[in-house]
């Protein structure tokens, strides 16, 4: 098989050649956009799922749908310990520009409000008591700042005012604005609260601005901890692994575009080793194509490819995350993997999690003494707590990887 024509794309957030199994989510979002365009009430949307299920890819596909409708769009990726103002201002700046030249005076005014909003982020003083050079920042908005609107310094007040003004400009242009936030669980608590308050105000006024977030499975708990009414603000869509039919489509359609195919046995073998996770499908598919001497790709080709694919995943997908953990955190991760090995057959850790008390028993420690390691791993995005007293890996098959490493 010609490696130059290999169609598979195992990259972070990189759109696969065939976006299989996501028609329902794409169709639902089209309905949301149409309803908002007609002045109908709609909730913002939050995609939740493990790493490697294609949340970022789907987020980008939803954004493309908004662009096709000539909405203004902007996207940002939340980062731990990074305030929301600057990245959100950059995303909204792009969204306003995408709305086009209609209602130019209104757009100029709201850009001035956006500039004031962006510049209100407190600058951290340097060790000498002066503002650090990196914080003497100016947004690239070529209009004068407008004072008295979205510049109070209180992110909740400012964001409500900013979203209201921008949505008003979009409504005047007969369109809408969609803001896409990846890794939403990493927003600071005060920014989560502000975002919920702003979405609440948008919903009450029926304004054409929607927030689309993506994050790990505990994101609903993060939002709920901020505002008790958050479950009514957002529609949650759980993004999971593909079923066998969708997984086969993700493999076959790109291959057939290149004049190749998989046997039915090969598709079954691929599903066995990937469990239907989109990132793994691309990773194994790429290697299987390269090792197969001819079309169709057979189950034997998949079995030959599996060790190479697993070795690449061990370095790039699993290993890079494991390396971020400290020795005490790695001990905790390995204990999680050992406990999860005892889960009933057919029930994955992503489904049920494991009890923190069982990890403490396995390590012979008091649960309280393990809290720092657990909390740090949650902050690093390696594990999450879907319910009190239970935790799970954010990465599919991470426990299997750790057990395999321990056996080597």
Please tell me about this protein's structure.
The chain has 408 residues and is of the alpha/beta class. The chain has three domains: 23-238, Rossmann fold (3-Layer(aba) Sandwich); 244-322, Orthogonal Bundle (Helicase, Ruva Protein, domain 3), CATH 1.10.8; 327-407, Arc Repressor Mutant, subunit A. It contains 17 helices and eight strands. The strands form two sheets. It has a five-stranded parallel β-sheet. The chain has a three-stranded antiparallel β-sheet with strand order 6-8-7. The longest helix is centred in the C-terminal third of the chain and has 24 residues, at 299-322. The model has no long low-confidence stretch (mean pLDDT 89).
**In the CATH hierarchy, what is the class of the largest domain?**
Alpha Beta
Tertiary shape? globular
Number of domains: 3
Distance between the termini: 32 Å
Strand order of the largest sheet: 2-3-4-1-5
Beta-strand fraction estimate? 5-15%
In angstroms, what is the radius of gyration?
24 Å
Poorly predicted runs are: none
The chain-level mean pLDDT equals 89
From the 3D coordinates, which CATH architecture of the largest domain would you assign? 3-Layer(aba) Sandwich
Number of strands: 8
The run of helices and strands is HEHEHHHEHEHHEHHHHHHEHHEEH
Structural class designation: alpha/beta
Counting copies of identical and different chains, the oligomeric state is single chain
CATH superfamily of the largest domain: P-loop containing nucleotide triphosphate hydrolases
Helical content band: 40-55%
Main β-sheet, in a few words?
5 strands, parallel
């Amino acid at each position: 098989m010609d490696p130059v024509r290999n169609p598979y794309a195992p990259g972070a957030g990189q759109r696969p050649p065939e976006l299989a199994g996501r028609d329902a989510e794409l169709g639902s979002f089209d309905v949301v956009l149409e309803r908002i365009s007609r002045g109908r009430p709609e909730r913002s949307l939050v995609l939740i799922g493990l790493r490697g299920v294609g949340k970022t890819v789907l987020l980008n596909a939803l954004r493309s749908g908004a662009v096709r409708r000539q909405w203004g769009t902007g996207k940002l990726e939340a980062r731990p310990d990074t305030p929301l103002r600057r990245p959100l201002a950059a995303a909204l700046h792009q969204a306003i520009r995408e709305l086009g030249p209609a209602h130019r005076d209104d757009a100029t005014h709201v850009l001035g409000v956006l500039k004031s909003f962006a510049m209100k982020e407190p600058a951290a003083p340097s060790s000498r008591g002066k503002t650090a050079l990196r914080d003497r920042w100016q947004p690239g908005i070529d209009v004068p700042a407008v004072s008295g609107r979205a510049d109070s310094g209180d992110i909740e007040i400012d964001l409500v005012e900013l979203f209201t003004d921008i949505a008003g400009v979009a409504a005047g242009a007969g369109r809408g604005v969609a803001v896409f936030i990846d890794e939403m669980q990493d927003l600071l608590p005060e920014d989560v609260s502000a975002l919920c308050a702003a979405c609440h105000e948008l919903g009450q006024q029926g304004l054409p601005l929607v927030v689309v977030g993506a994050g790990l499975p505990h994101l609903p708990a993060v939002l709920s901890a901020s505002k008790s009414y958050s479950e009514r603000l957002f529609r949650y869509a759980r993004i999971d692994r593909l079923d066998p039919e969708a997984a086969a489509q993700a493999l076959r359609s790109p291959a057939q575009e290149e004049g190749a195919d998989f046997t039915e046995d090969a598709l079954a073998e691929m599903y066995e080793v990937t469990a239907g996770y989109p990132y793994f499908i691309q990773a194994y598919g790429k290697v299987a194509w390269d090792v197969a001497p001819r079309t169709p790709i057979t189950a034997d080709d998949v079995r030959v490819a599996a060790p190479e694919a697993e070795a690449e995943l061990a370095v790039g997908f699993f290993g890079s995350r494991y390396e971020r953990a400290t020795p005490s955190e790695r001990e905790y991760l390995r204990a999680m993997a050992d406990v999860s090995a005892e889960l009933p057959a057919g029930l994955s850790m992503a489904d049920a999690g494991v009890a923190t008390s069982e990890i403490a028993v396995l390590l012979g420690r008091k649960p309280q003494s393990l809290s720092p390691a657990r909390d740090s791993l949650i902050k690093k995005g390696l594990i999450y707590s879907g319910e009190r007293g239970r935790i799970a890996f954010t990465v599919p098959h991470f426990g299997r990887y750790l057990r395999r490493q321990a056996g080597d």
